[in-house]
Amino acid sequence: MLVHGTFAATSWGVIGPALARRGYCVFTFSYGDAGTGDIAASARELRAFVDRVRARTRARRVSIVGHSEGGMMPRYYIRFLGGAAKVEDLVGLAPSNHGTDNPLALTGALAGCTACGQQLAWGSRFLATLNAGVETPAPVDYTALQTSYDAVVVPYTSAFLSGPPARVTNVVLQTACPADVSGHLGIATDPVALQWVENALGRRGPADPSFAPTCSP
Predict the structure, then answer these.
(1) Which CATH architecture has domain 2-201?
(2) How far apart are CA 205 and CA 168, in angstroms?
(3) What sections of the chain are H helices per DSSP?
(4) For residue 155, is the peptide bond before it cis, meaning its omega torsion is within 30 degrees of 0?
């Protein structure tokens, strides 16, 4: 399942077809007034969508690949809405797991984007609730993929999750591929990020931290 970010500004034109070619049954999920609505309400929408997909495919559990808010919002579903029993993998691309210091989030909140305010790194009651205690409930496997050039989720390290290495992998694309300059939006179409997504979905557990992707020229 592919879950877009705030303002639905995510392109699945690379990851979606690539996963389909590998034999995955790929679904895209749109939610929360283009991802601008209350995040808890969006998570409830996700719960209903997962149940419909599971009924249609007869899958016991689903894997979620989400970008930005779409990589963070499913954690609310997993933690508070019964999703832990229905999700196998959560792979976040530049996920806003601990919010952002970017003042544009405040600007968006003042303009009526509820989710923008909830993703502020300071004063967000939503994020305080989401991240209190165990950030990564079992048995779900979590992979957070991030670029050091992210100018939306600031600092870029706020994407990362705590948890046991057996179930949680945090990746900076530039560690393996220093020349990769993909930003917050570009990570969703980045060929290096795609390789990490495929690695995470194709094995038990999260992405292998020792995985060596082929770097783009």
Answers:
(1) 3-Layer(aba) Sandwich (3.40)
(2) 8
(3) 15-21, 32-35, 39-57, 69-80, 103-110, 114-118, 125-131, 173-176, 191-201
(4) yes
pLDDT in tens, the chain (217 residues): 999 999 999 999 999 999 999 999 999 999 999 999 999 999 999 999 999 999 999 999 999 999 999 999 999 999 999 999 999 999 999 999 999 998 877 787 777 899 999 999 888 999 999 999 999 999 999 999 999 999 999 999 999 999 999 999 999 999 999 999 999 999 999 999 999 999 999 999 999 999 999 997 7
> Residue 162's CB: how many other CB atoms inside 10 A?
12
CB-count exposure of residue 132 (10 Å: 0-12, 13-18, 19+): exposed
